[in-house]
Amino acid sequence: MASPTNPGTRTRQPSLAQLRAFAAVAEHLHFREAAAEIGMSQPALSGAVSALEEALGVQLLERTTRRVLLSPAGERVAARARTVLEAVGDLMEEAEAARAPFTGVLRLGVIPTVAPYLLPTVLRLVHDTYPDLELQVHEEQTGSLLDGLQQGRLDLLLLAVPLGAPTVTELPLFDEDFVLVAPTDHWLGGRGDIPREALKDMDLLLLDEGHCLRDQALDICREAGREEGAPVTTSAAGLSTLVQLVAGGLGVTLLPRTALRVETARNDQLTTGYFADPAPSRRIALAMRSGAARQGEFEEFAAALREAMKGLPVRIVE
């Protein structure tokens, strides 16, 4: 290894490209997956990692025909590389924020139970009010969105709260009620005073594991007195499929008010019912990293969204 006291043998300065390549390999322990993540060819990725090893004078990876492992030195360098890349990301964010607001790229993460119903409003607002803003939309489940926000892959999230994440700041937009959706001959169809307790013994259809809407619905059922572990049929990855299962007579489900028109308008095999006050509800908010360089911009964006969403069947949170 190079001696730190001998200028002639001192290690060379690694490049950011080399650090990004190595950090991706350290995360995936797979060259093909790492290359795909950072948009680099596999030979270029391998060359960048080899160049980093040569620059630092240490072996970072143990390569076999079947797997890739981090060497002890590689584990230590990987942690440092992530820190450096995060710092560079912060630097780029600061520089971007120094430019005129609402310009450049805004990477917005949205949960699946919000995206189809609120994105038309969001996209119209951006088109009409912020024409210089390049909006990139990523639809993912809550856990993936939070990881993306904290790792710097995403700038802003649109999702249900509270999140319980200490490093994330929530900007509330609105509250919306849940509505019971049932087959046309269901005894609760058309009612506007359904007690929550009615959910205790129903055949309830929910989304798959990982969707926050599933967890919210289960919380509502527990509050209604439904026994922990009571049977729940779960066989839908999205609300559209869930509604079709209800129309087929397999059970009932809960939909947020913003999804109701889109998901039920074209199906005459469905009926709806509304809960007595206070109806079960969820809160939708924007979420950003606490102390984000674009915090003022995001707060202004939240205020504009609240105004734009006043025509929806929701209660705006001022």
Automatic annotation (TrEMBL):
UniProt keyword list: Activator, DNA-binding, Transcription, Transcription regulation
For this protein, the record's PANTHER family field holds: HYDROGEN PEROXIDE-INDUCIBLE GENES ACTIVATOR (PTHR30346:SF26), TRANSCRIPTIONAL DUAL REGULATOR HCAR-RELATED (PTHR30346)
The keyword Ribonucleoprotein appears for this protein: no
Q: What's one Pfam family here?
A: HTH_1
Q: SUPFAM superfamilies annotated for this entry? A: Periplasmic binding protein-like II (SSF53850), Winged helix' DNA-binding domain (SSF46785)
Organism's domain of life? Bacteria
In Swiss-Prot or TrEMBL terms, this protein is called: Probable hydrogen peroxide-inducible genes activator
What start-end ranges are recorded for coiled-coil regions in this protein?
none
Family assignment from sequence similarity: Belongs to the LysR transcriptional regulatory family.
Segments forming domain HTH lysR-type: 14-71
Q: What's the source species for this entry?
A: Streptomyces chrestomyceticus
